Amino acid sequence: MTEFKGRCHCGQTEWTVKLQDVGHILCHCDTCKQLGGGAYSLNQIIPQNDIKITKGSPKTYTYYGDSGKPVNCYYCPNCTTHVYHHQQVMGDKVVVRTVLLDGGKDFKPAAEIFGKAKMNWEPEVAQTFETLPPS
User: Fold this and answer.
1) pLDDT given for residue 36 in this prediction
2) Within 10 A of 95 (CB to CB), how many other CB atoms are there?
3) Is the pTM of this model over 0.85?
């Protein structure tokens, strides 16, 4: 288990996360595209107890995922950088943005999820799942 520090764009919100495996999970879902303005987001799915907000107090936005259940997005109230998401369907797991972590730009792709929504021009860079990997 390795601990990393993260921060938002403006520096008002900071956190630490513990990662079992160092790498990015590329999410190609349409929501990640809309929230981030890109072809995918870079994430890890971790136990909720493995993220600690160390500075600031994120705001919450709620939408409904493919499961029909609520997804809470935690973001910096100043610059709106998305720190992590909690999908009710995932129990005590959260989705953290790995590119926001110190050293995150050096992480390698580990897997791709929601490949069904991938842009047709994107090459496969890791094992790709149509939605989520099997539990």
Assistant:
1) 86
2) 22
3) yes
